[in-house]
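Format notes (please read before filing issues)

Several people have asked whether sequences and C-alpha cells are stored in separate files. They are not. Every record keeps both together, in the order shown below: the sequence lines, then the C-alpha cell lines. Line labels are part of the format and must not be stripped during preprocessing.
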Amino acid sequence: MSNNGFRLQPSAWQSALPLAVINSHIHFDHTGGNAKFSFIFACLAAMQTAEKKAIRSGIQKTSAGGDTMERNEKIKLAGEEAEKYRLLGYHCSESSIRAVAQLMGLSLSEDILRIASVFRGGGGGFRDRCGLVEAGLMLIGFLFGRTEAAVSEREYSYLAQEWQSRFKMEFVSLYCRDILPVARRASAPVSNCARTYRVGTEMLMGMMLDAPELIKNIPADFKA
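Then the structure lines:
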C-alpha cells in the first residue's frame, strides 16, 4: 500500500499479523496517515531525491538572506564541527563532508561516508589530491550531479571547477604533499592539519551556500 492517505485505518484489515505501510514517495497525501501504523517503510532513492530538492531550496533561501541563521555563522560552525570530528579521529575528507552535511541538514548514507574515508591523506596516505578537495567534489556531485546521460553536465562541472579554483587560491596547491608540510610547520609544536581542516571546511560551506547564485551566473563561454 503506497498511499495511506488520511482516511485509511489499520483496523480496516482483520489480520493477526502486524500491518505495515510502504511509502513510494513523500507527498503528504501519501504519508498523512503514517502515524496510524507501527511499521513504516519507504523507497530510499525517492526519499533522498526529495531531501536533495529540499536542501537545494534551503540553500537558495540562505544565499538570498532568507534563512534565520546568518551565512557567516553557518560557515564558522562548519569549521568548528570539522574540528570536533578531527578530534574524534576522523580524517580531512571525513571531517569536512560530515560537518558540512550536518550544517546543511543533509543525511549521508554509510556508503557515502565510507567512500569519503578513502580520500584521506591524498588518497589513503598517497599524498595526492587533498581529501578536502575530494569531499567538496563529492558533495557537489551528490546535490547537483546527474544520473541520466541526457542531463547537461554544465552546472555541476562549473561548481566543481569553481570549488577547486577557490581551494587552490587559498592553499596554493590541491595536493596533500604540498599542503601538509606547510600545515605542520605552521602548527608547531603540535604539528597537525587542524587549520587546514577548519579553513577548508569553512570554504566548502561557503561554496555550497554560493552554489545557486553561481549556477545562475555561469559565464556564457564556460565549457565543461
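For reference, the curators noted about this record: The two ends are 44 Å apart (CA to CA). The chain has two domains: 10-42, 48-216.
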